[in-house]
């Protein structure tokens, strides 16, 4: 995968620090006259963010217990969740340059919570997709960058110029590409270490609304938006964005799960049950954490609907996967007593 190779090569160029110490990096970039300054800033902010990730993932690779748990290829993805990121623009002596400073801080508490991801890894594809999309977007910008590539002095150092067949971008296209870099970066910032069922927080709603406007057909961005809307108490809007995610990707199981929760919040229990039943059918691994989540939720919905046979089946299966809370609860009410 390209992103892993790029981040690993970047990591070799950076000084290493203890995982408990914050990382501070500064970089500058010439702003070509043909480009809006905002585009140069977004390109530089993205590049310095990737460099910060590289430094963090190199340290993660030294945690042998963590790497044995997840595998070394996952280190760049875990790095996204591990660090708190602050990127700010610094003053420069030349008006034709932009300068960025990044502060990445990591906490022991976050690192310990990352270890819990072994049982539920379905946030990792979100990170992988957004990170790959960010890298690809930066590579596109790099290929069209006037005069020299963004990576030429940092990574390639081979003096290569833009490909002759790289058609020039209009000013409008450059602005859009800068906005895309910002949107993808901020979606990564909006990801949270899973806390219960959630991958993001209601506080990120405004950022995700703007990202979805820039990337209206990205199922991962739309799913995160759906989740943030639900957490903000907007179930109807949550269903709308989840539906758009499913239109873009029929197998967007996370979007369907959020849709089920939104239907549940609206007391549309039949629709919630249908959503959850589709997920149970489509989930290939019977003993996965996702299957357990769907069975618990469907069992609870069926309990509210008074469908005791289906409820008992779900709670028994969930108990077989290690969570007997639902089964214990209904048995106290004299349901599901037969083995």
Summarize the structure.
The chain has 339 residues and is mainly alpha-helical.
Q: Could you walk me through the main structural features you see in this protein, from its secondary elements to its overall organization?
A:
The chain has 339 residues and is mainly alpha-helical. It contains 16 helices and 3 strands. Helices cover 60% and strands 8% of the residues. It has a 3-stranded antiparallel beta sheet. Helix 6 runs antiparallel to helix 8 (171-190), helix 10 packs antiparallel against helix 11 and helix 12 (253-265) packs antiparallel against helix 13 (269-282).
In the sheet with the most strands, the strands line up as 1-3-2
Output mean pLDDT: 83
**Poorly predicted runs:** 1-19, 152-165
Can you count the beta strands? 3
Total of helices: 16
Biggest beta sheet attributes: 3 strands, antiparallel
Our estimate of the beta-strand percent is 5-15%
What's the number of structural domains?
Answer: 3
Helix share bin? 55-70%
How would the global form be characterised? elongated
The end-to-end distance, rounded to whole angstroms, is 48 Å
Structural class: mainly alpha
Radius of gyration (Å): 23 Å
Order of helices and strands: HEHHHEEHHHHHHHHHHHH
Supply the key terms.
mainly alpha; 16 helices; single chain; elongated; 339 residues; 3 domains; 3-stranded antiparallel sheet
Topology readout:
Elements (H helix, E strand, L loop, with lengths): L1 H11 L10 E8 L6 H25 L2 H7 L4 H8 E8 L6 E10 L1 H7 L9 H21 L7 H5 L14 H20 L14 H10 L4 H13 L3 H14 L4 H13 L3 H14 L6 H17 L2 H13 L4 H7 L8
Antiparallel strand pairs: 1-3, 2-3
Helix pairs in contact: 1-2, 2-4, 2-6, 2-8, 6-8, 8-9, 9-10, 10-11, 10-12, 11-12, 12-13, 13-14, 14-15, 15-16
